[in-house]
Design goal:
Elements lengths: L17 E6 L1 E2 L11 E2 L5 H18 L5 E8 L7 H14 L2 E11 L6 H9 L4 E7 L3 H6 L6 H13 L4 E8 L6 H13 L4 E6 L7 H7 L8 H17 L3 E4 L2 E3 L6 H7 L5 E3 L4 E4 L2 E5 L3 H8 L5 E6 L2 H12 L6 E2 H7 L5 H14 L3 E4 L3 E4 L1 H5 L1 H6 L3
Parallel strand pairs: 1-4, 1-11, 2-3, 4-5, 5-6, 6-7, 7-8
Antiparallel strand pairs: 8-10, 9-10, 12-13, 13-14, 15-17, 16-17
Helix pairs in contact: 1-2, 1-10, 2-3, 6-8
Length: 391
């Protein structure tokens, strides 16, 4: 830790106002995916929902919630739940957690898994935001990355969601895919923009361990674009979306004003959140936990106790580093005021002075008018170099 004081201020003990719930079931496993997910066929989904309900009960007993402002149901593909299971699951969430009337309630979905009946069930259960995993509109690339939907499924799913009354919609696109060319990315972005959505998430492919792509990469059988071409793709995405009136509020996320992901901003501000479900992470009162990952092991554990795989205290030095790393992902940057409120009045200058000075000299960070730091345009392109300075 850079220039850390001998005595670190205590962490601010907030009760989480954000809730993450993991549904680990998918129609199939994509070739790039290292999330804790399992093909749904043959899985004990109803038993999983029973166990999840019990984890909710045990969680609120141990750490009673205040009002929940954001809920995010991720996976896996939560929309593989059938309407009856969906109704039951969403009722369970509302029974255990006091959800604010103006809460942002997001559910991830795959194109083709949201028919009108399921969308109506989601609306009735409180979901008001859907994030669709589109990834690309190129049919060959969809096959290459192991997706089983077609481009037209994205268009139909968005149309169904709008018809069901959903206005807050987002899709994920990926770039840097095997054999992907800039022209293919441009075509996908144009088709995405035609959908006229308020939010887009745009991610560069990362080859993660425990994936098919990693095994191919190890054998030199994964033909990825050159670094220069991937950079050109990212620069094109930024230019194209900003030209359409979307604000890049985080390295990978673009939104119309008022449609930024409130839940993800909780993570980027290093604020606490409940994390429930198999393999879920949570952060509260200076402790980070990760749950047991396997479906049946999770069910067995959660039916009798909190299903923790491990729980670790986060000391102030690590939390300060986390604050800088995740906070600088936001293009608005980090504020001295927020740093001080989380860390007992400490300042970024006294904690990270040398690193901040060096990054400014390199042209990667700049001061903000509101008393803090943000990435420069060059820093956005070289974000990992910036974040690494605070590890």
């Amino acid at each position: 830790m850079n220039n850390m004081k001998a005595t670190s201020p205590p962490l601010h003990a907030w009760t989480p106002r954000a809730l993450y719930i993991h549904i680990p079931f998918c129609t199939n496993k994509c070739f790039y995916c290292d999330f804790n997910s399992y093909v749904a066929a043959g899985q004990p989904i109803d038993a999983y929902l029973d166990a999840l309900d019990n984890e909710m009960k045990l969680t609120v007993a141990k750490l009673p919630p205040e009002t929940i402002d954001t809920v995010f149901v991720g996976g896996g593909t939560p929309t593989v739940l059938d309407p009856k299971q969906m109704t039951r699951f969403l009722a369970s969430v509302r029974r255990h957690f006091p959800i604010a009337s103006n809460a942002e309630f997001t559910m991830e979905a795959n194109p083709g898994t949201t028919d009108p009946e399921k969308l109506a069930t989601m609306r009735e259960g409180g979901v008001n935001r859907i994030s669709f995993g589109a990834q690309t509109f190129d049919e060959e690339l969809l096959k290459t990355i192991g997706r089983i939907h077609e481009a037209r499924d994205v268009v139909q799913s968005i149309a169904n969601a709008k018809a069901a009354g959903f206005e807050n919609l987002s899709i994920d696109l990926m770039f840097g895919l095997p054999n992907q060319k800039l022209a293919q990315l441009k075509d996908s972005v144009n088709k995405a923009i035609e959908l006229d959505l308020p939010h887009y998430s745009l991610y560069g492919l990362k080859v993660e361990e425990n994936t098919l792509f990693y095994r191919l990469y190890q054998r030199d059988e994964l033909p990825l674009p050159e670094e220069e071409e991937e950079l050109a793709m990212y620069e094109y995405l930024m230019e194209r979306l900003s030209g359409e009136g979307y604000r890049q509020y985080e390295i990978s996320n673009f939104a119309r004003p008022g449609f930024e992901s409130r839940h993800n901003i909780t993570y980027w501000r290093n604020e606490p959140y409940y994390g429930l479900g198999a393999g879920a992470h949570g952060y509260a009162h200076g402790l980070r936990h990760v749950n047991i990952k396997g479906v049946q092991p999770y069910i067995d554990a959660a039916n009798s106790a909190l299903p923790r795989l491990e729980t670790n205290p986060v000391d102030a030095a690590d939390a300060m580093g986390d604050f800088m790393m995740v906070g600088l992902r936001m293009l608005g940057g980090v504020r001295e005021e927020d740093f001080g409120s989380q860390f007992g009045g400490a300042t970024m200058e006294e904690t990270f002075g040398p690193a901040l000075s060096k990054l400014q000299k390199q042209g990667l960070l700049e001061r903000t008018e509101r008393g803090g730091y943000r990435l420069t345009p060059q820093g956005v392109l070289l974000g990992n170099e910036v974040f690494g300075a605070f590890v």
